[in-house]
């Protein structure tokens, strides 16, 4: 199904993508104290939102609105710096849509449907045939051209991308039931007792929060939803169940039919919304054959490219050898007589002599002094780790200063070290 990497057509050109990027992502704890979840760094040089944006550009969907709300400054700055290469002369753009109380009521976005409703005038101005609604906070590679083609072929009113997940995890999603044509017959948002897929008792079919709407029908549904006082103005809780209950043609699209770079027939899709999941997805990139392919030239991940010198490793004495093993090290890093193992270092990280870093994720602009030992640690952007510090070896001691997850990952941010970093991260 995925031999041809792109499915660019008049369908993709007549589509407007809206990326809902206003969420805080509270389960990421201190990583979202100063930024929205889509702006959290990922994979050594990217931000989470880059994956959704790259999917749009690579799919030929090049009219994109990014809807922002919570602590959006670092996200806005990243998009302005890194995503201004689309050409307005060809009606290609990435447009920022901050919550600006555009409707009569003086409220911020009340839910996912309300976030789109409050931008209806802007959407109408672009006059798309289809509106592709996406989240900005998942890591995956998907050809949106394929879901658009399937949507048009089935003459659907709404198509929802879906994924099979273990039943025990399904309560975190919208769970759907489908008939043999993949038409959705039932949709329940975050049910306590999810229904399994017929014939696959351990799994449920869940929504990925990726929707293709016929534009005119979307306008009607949003206006209808806006006028209902008892609605929470959310796609998963209100709009979609209402459409499924009516006679609307609502279909499910299987993610494996549009996933790019399948790994052994399994599509890669990660919600890096907890500290443990975030650590695991980053560390997985350092393995010999990671689940996510960042090296595919046919489906590149685009981002803001800072101009940095190459990574540098210095000293070759016993106990003072600058080296990185089974690791990813980004531009601007200097490893000065230190050992890095199974770790991911973002840009501009400096590690001084006699230090060892294992199984750790070090965000940009971190300075690690001499004789430091870190194990299973995430270090936030801009931290300065003082000489002789040990983190990840004495959980009881670490708990008094840092955040430790159930899986034993330690999160370190400047405030925990009594340091103040004057930027939006």
UniProtKB/TrEMBL annotation:
It comes from Nitrosomonas stercoris. Involved in the biosynthesis of ADP-glucose, a building block required for the elongation reactions to produce glycogen. Catalyzes the reaction between ATP and alpha-D-glucose 1-phosphate (G1P) to produce pyrophosphate and ADP-Glc. Keywords: ATP-binding, Carbohydrate metabolism, Glycogen biosynthesis, Glycogen metabolism, Nucleotide-binding, Nucleotidyltransferase, Transferase. Residues 309-412 form the Glucose-1-phosphate adenylyltransferase/Bifunctional protein GlmU-like C-terminal hexapeptide domain. It holds the Pfam family NTP_transferase. Its EC number is 2.7.7.27. SUPFAM superfamilies: Nucleotide-diphospho-sugar transferases, Trimeric LpxA-like enzymes. Belongs to the bacterial/plant glucose-1-phosphate adenylyltransferase family. This is Glucose-1-phosphate adenylyltransferase.
């Amino acid at each position: 199904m995925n031999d041809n990497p792109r499915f660019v057509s008049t369908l993709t050109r007549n589509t407007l993508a809206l990326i809902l990027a206003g969420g805080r992502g509270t389960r990421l704890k201190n990583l979202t104290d100063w930024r929205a979840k889509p702006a959290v760094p990922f994979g050594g040089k990217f931000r989470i939102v880059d994956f959704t944006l790259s999917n749009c550009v690579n799919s030929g969907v090049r009219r994109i609105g990014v809807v922002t709300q919570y602590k959006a400054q670092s996200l806005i700055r990243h998009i302005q710096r890194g995503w201004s290469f689309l050409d307005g002369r060809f009606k290609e753009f990435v447009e920022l849509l901050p919550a600006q109380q555009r409707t009569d009521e003086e409220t911020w976005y009340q839910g996912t449907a309300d976030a789109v409703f409050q931008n209806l005038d802007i959407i109408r101005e672009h006059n798309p045939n289809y509106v592709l609604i996406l989240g900005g906070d998942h890591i995956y590679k998907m050809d949106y051209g394929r879901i658009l083609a399937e949507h048009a072929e089935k003459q659907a009113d709404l198509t929802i991308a879906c994924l099979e997940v273990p039943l025990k995890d399904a309560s975190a999603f919208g769970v759907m039931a489908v008939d043999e044509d993949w038409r959705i017959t039932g949709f329940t948002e975050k049910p306590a007792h999810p229904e399994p897929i017929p014939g696959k008792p351990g799994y449920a079919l869940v929504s990925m929060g990726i929707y293709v709407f016929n534009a005119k029908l979307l306008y009607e549904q949003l206006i209808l939803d806006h006028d209902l006082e008892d609605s929470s103005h959310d796609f998963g809780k209100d709009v979609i169940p209402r459409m499924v209950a009516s006679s609307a043609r609502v279909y499910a699209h299987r993610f494996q039919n549009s996933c790019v770079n399948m790994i052994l027939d399994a599509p890669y899709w990660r919600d890096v919304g907890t500290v443990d999941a975030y650590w695991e997805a980053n560390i997985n990139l350092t393995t010999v054959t990671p689940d996510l392919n960042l090296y595919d030239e046919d489906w590149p991940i685009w981002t803001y490219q800072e101009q940095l010198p190459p990574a540098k490793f210095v000293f070759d004495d016993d106990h003072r050898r600058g080296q990185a093993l089974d690791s990813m090290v980004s531009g601007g890093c200097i490893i000065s007589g230190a050992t890095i193992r199974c770790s991911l270092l973002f840009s501009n990280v400096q590690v001084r002599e006699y230090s060892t870093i294992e199984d750790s994720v070090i965000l940009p602009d971190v300075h690690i002094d001499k004789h430091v030992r870190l194990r299973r640690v995430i270090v936030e952007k801009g931290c300065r780790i003082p000489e002789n510090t040990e983190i990840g070896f004495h959980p009881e001691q670490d708990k008094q200063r840092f955040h430790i997850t159930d899986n034993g990952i330690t999160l370190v941010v400047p405030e925990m070290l009594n340091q103040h970093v004057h930027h939006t991260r």
